[in-house]
Amino acid sequence: MQRKFTLGLVSGLLATMLSISSSTYAQKSATDEIAKYREMIADGNPSELYEAAGEELWKKPAGPKNATLEKCDLGLGAGVVKGAAAQLPRYFKDTNKVQDLESRLMTCMQVLQGRDPQEMIDAPFQKGPKKDMEAIVAYVVTLSKGDKIKVSTNHPKEKEMYELGKRAFFFQGGPMDFSCASCHAEDGKRIRLQDLPNITTQKGAALGWGYWPAYRVSSGQFWTMQQRLNDCFRQQRFPFPIYGSDLTLALSMYMSKNANGGTVETPGLKR
Amino acid sequence: MNMKNVKSLLAIGSFTLVAIAMQGSAIAQQANDPKFNKMIKDGFKADGIAGLDRIDQDATQKFCSDPIFSSSKQGEKMREKIQKINMDSIKQPSDGKYIGDWKRGEAIAQSGRGATWTDKADTPIGGGCYNCHQIDPKEISHGNIGPSLTGYGKMRGNSQDVVTYTWNRINNSKAYNACSNMPRFAHFKLLTEQQIQDVMALLLDPASPVNQ
Amino acid sequence: MADPMRVRAAENGGIVDVKILMKHDMESGQRKDAAGKTIPAWFISSINVKANGKDVLNGQFGPAVSKDPFLNFKYKGAKGDKIVVSWVDSKGDKRTDEATAS
């Protein structure tokens, strides 16, 4: 009786394995090959060029006050850059709000250098003052590379932002009824051949939050997290998200807290 | 204490007990949150063809933005209501023709263009079908958010029932599944009647690569 | 001068492994912008690497090389070698950067 059952099980398994269609195999080998390609190009990440430019900008006097950013407090004290990005977004007492890296840099540019944040908000990505921002972001995140993502929701405003971000994650809109959750709330899904991390889980959130900002090979550009969110909304057929808006900060809070315990792998390298 | 007081006390007591018991198992729709609404409203600006009307949710979007309630037992009545609203809005083809040209259908399925703020009002909108579905088995660059459609017509035949069901499904998937991930292609005028006829052909025409 | 390169050189067992990241748009001249106008060609045309004053690599780049090129090669050398990388592009713009083999 036992032997018959085992034999049945084995032949059943064999039949299933053999019946895996050739196109499924082609898929797996296609995504595997893409992963191999990524490993090969991981050396020589052009993000390093942005990081070098960013370091210079951090130390260069700018703005009407002709000051550097060297006294900027990213949450670990004035001028402390090492490890700061891994703990963002967080609540800041001086502005009495939760801020991500880019909105905090805008605060520092305003307070220390006298630069108008509206100019930064209005500038198109990859152009004008945003070019500076991208370089500085690359510099700051590189100094958290390898650290554990460690975002707190202890402060009531941090907790609130997390909950608002969670609700926003599931908010459906636009002519295609898309929300973030349409693509990012299930395991094992992909769009075309692009794997989609499940951001509602720790593992998936860490794959998303831990790898952006990144150099995007297909566009030859360095994208900050704000730009990544912006382009998601574009693909969702939503209207244009305002740079550094509370909506983007809340979503960042949701993703990063879910990612806690993961590793900061930024600046990443993406297709 | 006289009897009247004891009776009212008992009534209040038991009412409270029932209320507390109900809280534990009751799943209700998530409450309206003015702070959240403001955050959404202040979070976007209109750009190109993407206007702020796109964040005004209709009943379906509102319902499906609450994944806990929308998939709960308590949400079943609402699910059926949403499905009915969507089903009632579907129009059968104006020329009575259901099947178009599968070659054009394949092109529509391959295109993910249109309707974003970088597109123009006259940019032809694609179905983006390969983003989520396997269709022609020769195409390996396909997603898996939706089920495979390979062999669709071969497996189902082309009775009027199948044809109508398929037409309805492409026009408005939420007629059958309130919170389907699939966009409502006719409802939001993403695809024209002609385009849907062509996608129908891709799925149902015996000559289509889908049915070889 | 154009944007700086990132040059790294590591010696191991008499072989120096040189890695160079160049910042350049490398426009092939085949692309068109959103308005339909051809974006003019602009790319690194030649690259030269010297170690202690002696040529170790000469390259002719062209429009087939993509944006922000990454170049990696090895030569027989020693720790402390002074490595100088120079490129010239199709508009005549130049860039030179140095590193020491560690």
Question: What structural class do you assign from the helix and strand content of chain C?
Answer: mainly beta
Helix content of chain A: 40-55%
Distance between the termini of chain A: 54 Å
Low-confidence stretches of chain C: none
What is the highest CATH level, the class of chain C? Mainly Beta
Task: Kindly report the name of the CATH homologous superfamily of chain C.
Answer: Immunoglobulins
- Rg of chain C, please? 15 Å
- Spatial strand order of the main sheet of chain A: 6-5-8
Number of strands of chain C: 7
Q: Can you tell me the overall shape of chain C? A: elongated
CATH architecture of chain A: Orthogonal Bundle
Query: Helical segment tally of chain C?
Result: 0
Q: What's the story with the biggest beta sheet of chain C? A: 4 strands, antiparallel
Number of strands of chain A: 8
Report what the structure shows.
The complex is a heterotrimer of chains A (271), B (212) and C (102). By secondary structure, chain A is mainly alpha-helical. Chain A has one domain (47-270): Cytochrome Bc1 Complex, Chain D, domain 2 (Orthogonal Bundle). Chain A contains eleven helices and eight strands. In chain A, the strands form three sheets. Chain A has a three-stranded mixed sheet. A two-stranded antiparallel ribbon of chain A has the order 1-2. A two-stranded antiparallel ribbon of chain A has the order 3-4. The termini of chain A are far apart. Residues 15-20 of chain A have low confidence and may be disordered. Chain B is an all-alpha fold and 212 residues long. Chain B has a domain at 102-211: Orthogonal Bundle (Cytochrome Bc1 Complex, Chain D, domain 2), CATH 1.10.760. Helices cover 44% and strands 1% of the residues of chain B. Chain B is built from nine helices and one strand, in the order H-H-E-H-H-H-H-H-H-H. Chain B has helices spanning 3-25, 34-43, 59-64, 67-70, 76-88, 102-110, 152-156, 160-171, 193-204, and one strand at residues 44-45. In chain B, helix 6 crosses helix 9 (193-204) and helix 8 crosses helix 9 (193-204). The model of chain B has no long low-confidence stretch (mean pLDDT 92). Chain C is an all-beta fold and 102 residues long. Chain C has no helices and seven strands. In chain C, the strands form two sheets. In chain C, strands 4-3-6-7 form a four-stranded antiparallel sheet, with no helix packed on it. Chain A binds chain C through residues 41, 43-44, 46, 48-49, 52-53, 215, 220, and chain C through 3-6, 19, 21, 23, 25, 66-68, 70, 72.
